[in-house]
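Please, structure for the following, as tokens.
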Amino acid sequence: MKHFLLLAVGLLVLSVASTQPAGDDGFERIRERAEALAPLNSLLIWHADSLVVEEYFRGMSRERSFNIKSASKSVLSALVGIAVEDGHLEELDQPLHTLLPEAFEGEDEAKKAITLEHALKMRTGLETTSFGNYGAWVQSRDWVGFQVRQPIECPPDRCWSYSTGTSHLLSAILTRQTGQSTFQYARRALFDPLGIRIDGWDRDPSGIYLGGNNMAMRPRDLLRFGRLYLQNGVWNGQRLLSEEWIERSWGSYAVSPWNGHNYGYMWWNTTLAGEKAYFAWGYGGQFLFVVPDLDLAVVISSSLSNRPAGSGRHNQRVHRFMSQQVVPAFQSEAHRNTASAR
């Protein structure tokens, strides 16, 4: 009988231990793995109501800003949603030519059928100004006109084409419709309420802030943006973003042919270790992951210089790190809390 009781206690201890939260040992393993993922240079993990991991590597620090690259498209998506709530923009089926009439003057009817929602989904049908066309686009004197003049590859909403020129059209629209620069509007409506400090943001030759690239902030600031989505658009008791907009932003309107991830309103989404995850993604390994069911937000930044040999697959390694180390560490706690609530 004594041996049976000892065995039962041992099995109980083993069962409890296997469902404990990550704890210091688990977090240390996550930190060690992150440090090995060069050129990754910061890892911040927010869970429930706490910053449980904050690590900096390779010269990065808490107060040093980094270029979040195309992760800024997700910030722009939020600004469009706020502008809709503020009444600066009408319905999402509003054609772009009614918002940027000079840019669309003389263009054909196919282009005049492009709407705000098409742009948010990257389904305008216009040829991209990213990738091989990016250099010519940024060297032009008219970034808005350059994108509008791109040839139509398919009718609007019939195909998907990731394009920073498309997101820049939205910045131009915000500037026109709000009567202030995109940065000024963002400060009032989003950055100042969240306590976010912007240390750099490129502008086009006309002075329009670049919609969807080259925005610099500190890792903690990007984490604050992610926490806003975890909190369903409310910050310190103030609603900054509607729940409906978050739900629409996190929809799946296309599948990227080059990475297999789903695309929403300038947010990506995928599954990590069986959990639905949404992420903002910038060139070179700049990430904000939000996993709502685990009450989890993760920021990962990566150096854009001094990248070691073999770092070309860095993005895939980050996703494996999230799937194999980070998300499972918090799944065990979620399961424990669910069991205790029964």
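Confidence is low (pLDDT under 50) at residues 1-21, 338-342. The CA atoms of residues 33 and 253 lie 33 Å apart.
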